[in-house]
Recover the amino acids of this structure.
DNA sequence: GCAATATAGTACTAAAATAGTCCTATATAG
DNA sequence: CTATATAGGACTATTTTAGTACTATATTGC
């Protein structure tokens, strides 16, 4: 249940590598070799990450990629959004809800709460933690809170 | 990000309908009409729900479906599992992890914790709440108040 | 027994999403 | 000017998901 795409998985791996070498500039080829992933695929992911502002790039010879900001300021939610867009748990949970059976079901509202809770938990996980660099354990306080409270979100 | 399949969505709708009529037996055709969904699809979903023990069925004339147990004892996690199986957030999070780059990445562990947290949250949502039948807003608000004093939020 | 109704199981087809590749353009260092 | 590297987009292949169809079996009521 609840898979993330391979591309997103790759993205976290690549970002973790960049996080481990914050002052260096790594090329797509280098990252592909380090990660044992295909070079074209890695390139594609990095391009997407650049589009979404998670990495900065330098063109030309001696170019490459680095994190656009410190690993502690990049969250799992941002990575997910960057690769998969703001798709929600179910169609009904999207802002423009045009579910055909909405009037008769009433389930959508509850799923939205679940969706919200998950988003909140993902916003508390930083790349630092994903990369295993932070030392602090992953926390899920917000998840617990959101599940019970169900407050509004702004993202 | 993090979609559930349409089938799972349908399942919650159908289960919610069954939950709303706990003492009646509804046929697939009736449920399809109520939910404005295709009859073959509804039938398929119900068969799967029966296989996974979430609904009980009666064969033959005057047959139909009903919940296998009270709505309060059916959780969102169970519904998800019934329709989509125990697939995890990423391949690496599965019990039989055979990720090819596992040795070099170290990201898997953190995702596993995210995965676990999401599962736990889904286990706390019951069908009663999904169906909008429980008194859940009060209960959640009270719990939140009791638990308040948590930690700060991050974007 | 027999016909009608309804679920059970399974196999198949169609459609959509995802993954991966390739090509062209552009920027930079030397 | 050339080699290297990213940027963007188009394309194909694969996989997953959704939906349909068909056969078998159980139950009711005549
Ligand atoms: S399935 Fe869309 S609102 Fe319920
Ligand atoms: S991507 Fe599989 S263990 Fe990291």
């Amino acid at each position: 249940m609840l898979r993330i795409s391979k591309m997103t998985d790759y993205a976290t791996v690549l970002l973790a590598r960049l996080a481990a070498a914050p002052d260096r500039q790594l090329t797509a080829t280098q990252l592909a070799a380090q990660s044992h992933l295909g070079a074209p695929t890695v390139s594609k992911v990095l391009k997407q990450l650049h589009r979404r502002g998670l990495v900065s790039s330098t063109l030309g010879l001696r170019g490459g990629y680095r994190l656009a900001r410190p690993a502690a300021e990049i969250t799992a939610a941002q990575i997910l959004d960057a690769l998969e867009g703001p798709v929600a748990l179910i169609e009904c949970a999207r802002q423009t809800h045009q579910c055909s059976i909405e009037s008769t079901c009433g389930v959508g509202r509850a799923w939205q709460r679940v969706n919200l809770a998950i988003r909140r938990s993902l916003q508390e996980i930083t790349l630092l933690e994903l990369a295993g660099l932070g030392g602090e354990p992953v926390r899920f306080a917000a998840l617990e809170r959101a599940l019970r409270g169900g407050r509004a979100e702004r993202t």
